């Protein structure tokens, strides 16, 4: 088509259907991102409910009166879900010749308590043999690095029959960055009771699948220091949920502004 001198040539505009089509790809990407953010927020909400339930359960069990530890015939019916942190009493004699050492950093740098141990050291894990001939690993408590050698705390190596009151603890999973255990020196970095039991030569058929963390009852000589089970759990899932849901709302607002500007320009 020829133009008339002095008159502008009309420019064809895109079909109306092509305008919203340009937002299809960004909209799909935004919906995917929104789904991920909402999913993460919902997951944190479920984790919050789980953590609150765990805290309430631990508080209830640790405040309940101690019960006698069931015998070996009942161990298969026990589990972490039903019995973790349950307060029990077990009687027997220690095998101090077979104690092991679980690396631990005591205290909290944010809330230092000078009445409790601080710094690097070990939990002393000692087999306790009951009158029935069964064995329970007892976490007797914390010793500093320079008091690991039993000769430096001989008064605490109690002989004869003892009654230990403490909390039932089940094994923990090995972390990705956990240091390798040194079975030759009986030094461990993960509370894997099967591995520890094998290194000590304990009979797995007669050894409890859990350990007992001794309470803070004083020990002759002052070491090991019991009652060091951590009962305070970080609980920031509500903050994390707000963060993810806030990012989801921000994404909706940003995409809405973007879409409005694109349509307005066209």
Number of spatially distinct domains: 2
Question: Strand arrangement, largest sheet?
Answer: 2-4-5-8-6
Radius of gyration: 31 Å
| Termini separation | 25 Å
* Helical content class: 25-40%
How would a crystallographer describe the biggest sheet? 5 strands, mixed, barrel
- Chain-averaged pLDDT: 87
Q: Runs with pLDDT <50, length 5+?
A: none
Structural class: alpha/beta
Q: What overall geometry do the principal axes of the alpha carbons give? A: elongated
The amount of beta strand, in percent, is: 15-25%
What is the ordering of alpha helices and beta strands?
HHEHEEEEEEHEH
Number of strands: 8
* SS field, number of helical segments: 5
InterPro entries: Surf1/Shy1, Surf1/Surf4
Membrane topology: Multi-pass membrane protein
Subcellular location: Cell membrane; Membrane
Family: Belongs to the SURF1 family.
Task: Describe the secondary structure blueprint for this structure.
Elements: H1 18-21, H2 24-63, E1 67-68, H3 80-83, E2 87-94, E3 100-106, E4 119-129, E5 135-144, E6 161-169, E7 187-188, H4 193-199, E8 207-214, H5 237-265
Parallel strand pairs: 1-2, 3-7, 5-8
Antiparallel strand pairs: 2-4, 2-6, 3-4, 4-5, 6-8
Helix pairs in contact: 2-5
Structure description:
This protein folds into two domains: 78 residues; 129 residues. The mean pLDDT is 87. A five-stranded mixed beta barrel has the order 2-4-5-8-6. It starts with 17 loop residues before the first helix and ends with a helix. Strand 1, helix 3 and strand 2 form a beta-alpha-beta unit. It contains five helices and eight strands, in the order ααβαββββββαβα. With 266 residues, it is an alpha/beta fold.
């Amino acid at each position: 088509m020829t133009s008339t001198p002095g008159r502008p040539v009309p420019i064809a505009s895109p079909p109306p259907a092509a305008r919203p089509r340009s937002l299809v790809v960004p909209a799909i990407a935004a919906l995917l991102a929104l789904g991920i953010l909402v999913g993460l927020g919902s997951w944190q909400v479920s984790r919050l409910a789980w953590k609150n339930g765990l805290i309430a359960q631990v508080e209830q069990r640790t405040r309940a009166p101690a019960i006698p530890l069931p015998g070996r015939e009942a161990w298969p019916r026990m589990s972490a879900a039903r019995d973790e942190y349950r307060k029990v009493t077990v009687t027997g004699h220690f095998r101090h010749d077979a104690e092991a050492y679980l690396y631990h950093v005591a205290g909290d740098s944010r809330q230092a308590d000078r009445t409790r141990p601080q710094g690097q050291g070990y939990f002393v894990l000692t087999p306790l043999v009951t009158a029935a001939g069964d064995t329970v690993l007892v976490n007797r408590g914390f010793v500093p690095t320079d008091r690991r050698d039993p000769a430096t705390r001989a008064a605490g190596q109690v002989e004869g029959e003892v009654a230990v009151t403490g909390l039932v603890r089940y094994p923990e999973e090995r972390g990705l960055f956990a240091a390798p255990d040194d079975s030759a020196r009986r030094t461990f970095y993960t509370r894997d009771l099967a591995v520890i039991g094998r290194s000590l030569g304990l009979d797995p058929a007669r050894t409890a699948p859990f350990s007992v963390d001794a309470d803070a009852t004083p020990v002759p000589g002052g070491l090991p220091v019991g009652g060091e089970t951590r009962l305070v759990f970080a609980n920031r899932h509500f903050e994390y949920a707000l963060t993810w849901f806030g990012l989801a709302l921000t994404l909706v607002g940003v995409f809405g502004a973007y879409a409005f500007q694109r349509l307005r320009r066209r």
